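User: What would this chain look like folded?
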Amino acid sequence: MVPLLARLGLNGDESVGAQALSASGSRFIATNNVINDEAWPWRQVLDADSGYLVLMSTYLVLGLGMQGTAAAHDLIIHGAATRLLLVDADEERLAKAAERLARLTDFEALEQHVLDADDGALVQLFERAELCMNCLPYKFSLAMTRLALDHGVHIADLGGNTAIVREQLSMARAHPRGAQTAVLPDCGLMPGMGNLFAAFALDELGDCDSIYLRCCGLPTDPKPPLDYMMLFNVNGLINEYFGMAQVLRNGELLDVPTFGELETLELPMPANLPGVSHKFEAFLTSGGLSTTPWSFAGRVQNLDYKTVRYAGHHAKFHLLKELGLFEEKPMEVPELGSAMGAHAPMANVAPRAVLGVCLERVLHHPGDEDLAFLRCTATAGDKCLELEIFDIRDSKTGFTAMERTTAYSATACLYGVVIGKTKIGAGPIESAVDATWYLDALAERGIPVSVRRTS
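Assistant: Here's the prediction, encoded as structure tokens.
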């Protein structure tokens, strides 16, 4: 109890101001300590006579890969966690993540659970948790959302597939506990941070003529053949390059092919980074806007998102796409070592699976530094608002720019539930999270947002 209260800055000299959250499983902390409204953004007292405050502080973290480990770290540092239930199917990866978290934070209340996503034992962990940070691939999002709703556990995830996100939100709206449970898909960098930058722009400018988002995670020192490095799950990378992208054009919601509308742009690269001499390009990709085309329809005339890469990347990946290597449907190919011919033994192979294995090998550059960049440019009449972040690896913690910007965005959204800055119920995050507070939360996590206004 004492370490938690100290971390929250609670002492007997502060004035009253605390929010009571009615979530299932919330723990009550008995204390006469009270909190200053300006210093701690809780809005009401549960029981002014007893001084009981509601505080959710047991987090379930699913997937302890790159982003999951960074997310767990931030929940310890900025999420007022008192216990973390860590889950991963890979025992070695889980142990390494837990050791790293303990070393960086001296946090002792770490539980390791080696479980698959479909393991029935997950139910017991959801029964114990109050909040869940889901860092698993998006194919597990529906199942984890259903578990969270069944047990009244607030959940955020990194998303990556808009169709699944919309299904998650529909599920939450129809669920008996949906109105009392925060369901927050697509909370990472893009989608996620970009949704809230756009929401901030609408809050400040009102209805907008245009909102354009440009984002990337890139190596600071690009290497051939693709001038790229693996910064998150390879399936997420392929997914955003494939299919259709949703945009708003002249107020109309349209599906447009990915990999189109190539443009050039400049990044605010520091002079000491090797990539500063390179040119950059951007092109339409899928999933980045998430639910915003539906959320902002009627308020924004033109809305699109493009992924930024080093110049030349587009042409190389476009060739892979045209060859059919992004396809998920298995095709018959002769088994390895067999002669070609009508009677050769055949194997069913999904081209995307082969491409994924190759990309994991070719784009794996251990020790290389990365950068993360996001720019939101919004216009309304003669007014223009630009929000921008540029981040690089944190030398103190070792977390990469992509890990930081993706994970910390999500954990900020989830922690917002605890302190009343994220609304309870089904998202989407652009309507659930207080966008002004969110910018401050990023700055607190060492990711300052540059805001430029012109007219």
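The longest strand covers residues 208-219. If you want, I can go into more detail on any region.
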